Amino acid sequence: MKNKLGKQTLVFRNKPVITGECAVVGTREGSGPMKEYFDVILDDDTYGEKTWEKAESMMLKNAILTAIRKAGLEKSNIDVMLTGDLLNQLMSSSFTARDVSIPFIGLYGACSTMTQSMLMASVFVDGGFAEHAVCGASSHYCTAERQFRMPLEHGNQRPPSAQWTATASGAAVISRQPCTANNILIPAPKEIFVTYATIGKIIDTGMKDANQMGAAMAPAAVDTILNHFEDTGMTPADYDVILTGDLGYIGKEIALDLFADAGIDSAKLGVRYDDCGTMLYYREKEDVHGGGSGCGCSASIYTGYLFRKMRAGEFKRALIVSTGAMLSTISPFQGESIPGIAHAVTLETS
Asked: Per-residue pLDDT tens for 196-242?
């Protein structure tokens, strides 16, 4: 298969290009260490809406429309929209799709959704099924708490291992050719191409504690990355930066231990490896316990921090690996463990 490497990796021969992107974040995220890289920082996490869920949908809508505008395109130019979120029936994405009126495919990969959507959008574009595709993901602390844990009004205490679901959204336009009208405000920006994608497998180590998301997802992240290296023949040294999605502080340390067990020098890996869940907040100043999580965690770091760094020429090749815990609102109560998933995408600059 000319577009397949090894068991899990796709190679994009036509090199789809990221032509526009946008990151929208909430107030807490906008006061963290990444604040200078975000396009929009909310003054109020309700975003002027009557419910948290409507606010999350508005964030995703804003990210998508801004990414399209920054690509120099109109909604009518977009052939397909691929987005997802954490809510039942993809509430944020579905209502965004209703408002923007773009052909829509909803995706659910839990917190792995951003790289899942980029992977699928690249398949559409590389295969000639779309000229322009927009992809994205969103999450909101208050909507996730209401659905997966307890209503905020309960004021229930969270254990130290619990992670903070990011109030954030990110979107990117992936096109067959660079857009001549690209107006991203960076001097002489580099083009960012999608060159490889590794589809992850479900990895379940039997973890049942829903407050240990990072520990549940770390093995899946390591498995996908190792299979990516095996399929492509690349090593950590071939990348300027490797970012996992939202393992947080605990999951990141577990991942480093697993890499060491696999024979990858964690000291050498550490200089180029980080996790979005440890980057989004100040650990000491903000009470986020185990770090950041949620679809919007990696989505905002990629479309904000990473893409700007790559367009500025600071990173030439990046491996992004969003991670997801594929539990439902009822599976923990049925005694089920937490399946983990991770998808990887390689980005390279011109």
From this structure: 999 999 999 998 887 788 889 999 999 999 999 999 999 999 999 99
Predicted model pTM: 0.93
Q: Which range marks the domain in which residue 57 is found?
A: 15-175
How many structural domains is the chain composed of? Answer: 2
Give the CATH number, domain containing residue 129.
3.40.47.40
Do residues 275 and 337 both lie within one domain? Answer: yes
- 47-88 residue pLDDT tens: 999 998 999 999 999 999 999 999 999 999 999 999 999 988
Q: Evaluate whether residue 26 is within a structural domain.
A: yes
DSSP string computed for 45-62: TTTT-SSHHHHHHHHHHH
Considering only CA atoms, which of 248, 304, 292, 213 is closest in space to residue 28?
Answer: 292
| Neighbour count for residue 108 (Cβ, 10 Å) | 18
Query: What CA–CA distance (Å, rounded) separates 314 from 42?
Result: 28
Alpha helices, DSSP H, located in 134-246: 141-148, 213-232
Separation between Cα atoms, residue 269 and residue 236, nearest integer Å: 6
Angle at 291 between CA 290 and CA 297, to 5 degrees: 145
List phi, psi (to 5°) of 117: -70, -35
pLDDT in tens, 285-300: 777 767 888 999 999 9
Residues in CB range of 78: below 8 A, 6 or more apart:
68, 102, 132, 133, 134, 173
How far apart CA 133 and CA 194 sit, in angstroms, is 13
